[in-house]
Automatic annotation (TrEMBL):
Quaternary data: Homodimer. Probably interacts with PlsY.
Primary location class: cytoplasm
Name of this chain's protein: Phosphate acyltransferase
GO molecular function terms noted in the UniProt entry: phosphate:acyl-[acyl carrier protein] acyltransferase activity
Catalysed reactions listed for this entry: a fatty acyl-[ACP] + phosphate = an acyl phosphate + holo-[ACP]
InterPro entries: FA_synthesis, Phospholipid_synth_PlsX-like
Domain of life where this protein originates: Bacteria
Record-linked HAMAP family: PlsX
Catalytic class of the enzyme: transferase
Role of this protein: Catalyzes the reversible formation of acyl-phosphate (acyl-PO(4)) from acyl-[acyl-carrier-protein] (acyl-ACP). This enzyme utilizes acyl-ACP as fatty acyl donor, but not acyl-CoA.
């Protein structure tokens, strides 16, 4: 049985979203147990409303504090030791839970996870990794904002972590790894990406060279590595581009009666497109490099999106991702020593 601690108070909506997501998650997965961490009265009320108060694989751990979405990470770390977020991470540390999921404040969750769980040996900093929809299916990208400045060595560590995650969860023995750059030529880029390329050449990973922004969607690359500054800008650009296209489509289809009729005929295609790029399917960013498993759900997630984040955590527990990263990192270091 896989046991996951869920921050019931996290996100923009809290209990009205987290509890239905938990109920549905255990309903569709018989090997999953969820601990709902937060205000017991609120959680139990929602469980009763959903007719799930007696579900044996759902339990509640009461906490007295919550971390605000705009709260400073340092304050949350110092002052919110009985917050739903902190208790979730503590449960991973103590072994009461195999993983935790939160839709709460990203900075606070990263700071808490790093402080409580610590990083794996050989990992300087944890990185945020998520799937991005692409022509061939999807691409994994990291770091997406945890580390604004990174050394070449840290980019190598990110590559190892991303490669392990893809190999385990996508069943690809040798995932293709690329470093995000302003061009594919060796002479382009800053010192960090050039240095990372040299390290990756002798790492034993399936390194395919530099990739550009459009390659995230169009190229045959499985893992794209970058610093958190570039990764976060790229992620937000993708979100903005997606919303802009949707806005333009609505404008054009509602321009006059002829375009409205065209919209009716195009509806099956539009629905299929929406299904393929539905961001809820890709919800659940992994904090890789920690000794335990922590998954961040988007703050505005609905129950469907949060359930996908829970599934990401379940899969990482099943594949024992932290142990695999630890082993692969040691193998990469050995390869470099003998190169």
């Amino acid at each position: 049985m896989i046991k996951i601690a869920l921050d019931a108070m996290g996100g923009d909506f809290g209990v009205p979203v987290t509890v239905p997501a938990a109920v549905e998650a255990v309903r569709v997965n018989g090997g999953l147990e969820l601990i709902l961490v937060g205000d017991e009265t609120q959680v139990q009320t929602e469980l009763k409303r959903l007719g799930a108060a007696n579900e044996a694989r759902l339990s509640v751990r009461h906490t007295t504090q919550t971390v605000g979405m705009d709260e400073a990470p340092a304050q949350a770390l110092r002052m919110k030791k009985d917050s739903s977020m902190r208790v979730c991470v503590n449960m991973v540390k103590s072994g009461e839970a195999n993983a935790c999921v939160s839709a709460g404040n990203t900075g606070a969750l990263m700071a808490t996870a790093k402080y409580v769980l610590k990083t794996l040996p050989g990992i300087d900093r944890p990185a945020i990794c998520a799937r991005i929809p692409a022509v061939k299916g999807h691409t994994y990208m990291l770091d997406l904002g945890a580390n604004l400045d990174c050394s070449a060595e840290q980019l190598l560590q990110f590559a190892v972590m991303g490669s392990v995650l893809v190999a385990a969860t996508e069943h690809k023995p040798q995932p293709k790894v690329g470093v995000l750059n302003v061009g594919q030529e060796d002479i382009k880029g800053n010192d960090q990406v050039k240095g990372a390329a040299k390290l990756l050449d002798g790492s034993g990973l399936n390194y395919i060279g530099f990739v550009e922004g459009n390659d995230v969607f169009l190229s045959d690359v499985d893992v794209v590595v970058c610093d958190g500054f570039a990764g976060n800008v790229a992620l937000k650009t993708m979100e903005g581009a997606s919303k802009t296209i949707a806005h333009f489509l609505r404008e054009e289809f509602s321009r006059n009666w002829m375009t409205s009729i065209s919209a009716a005929f195009a509806m099956p295609v539009l629905k299929a497109l929406r299904q393929r790029i539905d961001p809820r399917k890709y919800n659940g960013a992994s904090f890789l490099g920690l000794t335990g498993i922590v998954v961040k759900s988007h703050g505005s997630s609905d129950a469907v999106a949060l359930r996908n984040a829970i599934e990401v955590a379940r899969l990482e527990v099943e594949e024992d991702i932290p142990r695999r990263i630890d082993s692969q990192l040691e193998a990469s270091l050995s390869a470099r020593r003998t190169a």
